[in-house]
Amino acid sequence: MKPHRCGTAFAFILLLTSHPSLVPPPFAAGPAIVSVQKIWEAAPHNAFTDLIRFHDEWFCVFREGQKHVSNDGALRILTSKDGDAWTSAALITSTNADLRDAKITTTPDGRLMLSGAGALHQPAPHKHRSMAWFSKDGRQWSEPVIIGEPNQWLWRPTWQNNRAYSVGYDTGGEKFVRFYESKDGREFKTLVPRLFDEGHPNEATLLFQPDGTGLCLLRRDQEPPSGKLGIAPPPYTNWVWKDLGMKIGGPHFLRLPDGRHVAALRLYDGKVRTSLCWLDVDTAKLTEFLKLPSGGDCSYAGLAWHDGLLWVSYYSSHEGKTSIYLAKVKLE
Fold first, then answer.
1. What topology does CATH give the domain 43-330?
2. What CA–CA distance (Å, rounded) separates 56 from 35?
């Protein structure tokens, strides 16, 4: 006859309920993709995105062209009420430049500011000119405003205390980055002439902490090719740089409501991909936690936090045609 075990099980339950510290915590799910959808593939090549929520609408901006580099590059602006159905709001073209790397932000006076760089059709006096356009509704845009200096690619203007800051990288022969400041988003003046000049620095994104501390996520392409994290207090003239220990592309990052920092990057170790990483500012450590469906020609993400989800626009060629995608990600 088999022993009866109900008494043993009942005693174990009594032990757990009388000692709550012995009850294991509920399982905590990690970050997960809620959804991914392709939102645009009209052009032969669709790439280099940014994303913003403005007046209860979504706006996603990116470059359209025949190829990754081609003279016909134009900046497409999409809009959506719900993040599911997207329509074209505007297309900005140029007769003398390949328009590239669209970035979008909100000005202190409540307008949208779109920025990018024009790779000038040659022959021309310069290789690149950075530009900005302004709009009250995301559909009607101003004429282009030239910002910064020739051959300085102002990659992502960012507003802080009614001033716009941007890191411009040299596209001539010197290969350094310069730090700019603007009161109106139209006239950018040099704040730090030579911000960083080791390892061919280029693409850079700025983020400002609640206490005003400035952070800069910087890409480098030559030895050593690892990215850098820059940190500076106001007025942002003295920067300390920490090595991230890995090569990155298309850097963007934001601070979550709980104080953590999440970065969207192109990673190169192993298979090239678009990934989300935690950034530890104190140790300058990037920890990959989620790979988005991507591969090949990819990345250059836009980021937004909305309704408890991380919204990520990016581009990828993993399904064949280089197209624009939107992912919604739930974090812990």
1. Neuraminidase (2.120.10)
2. 20
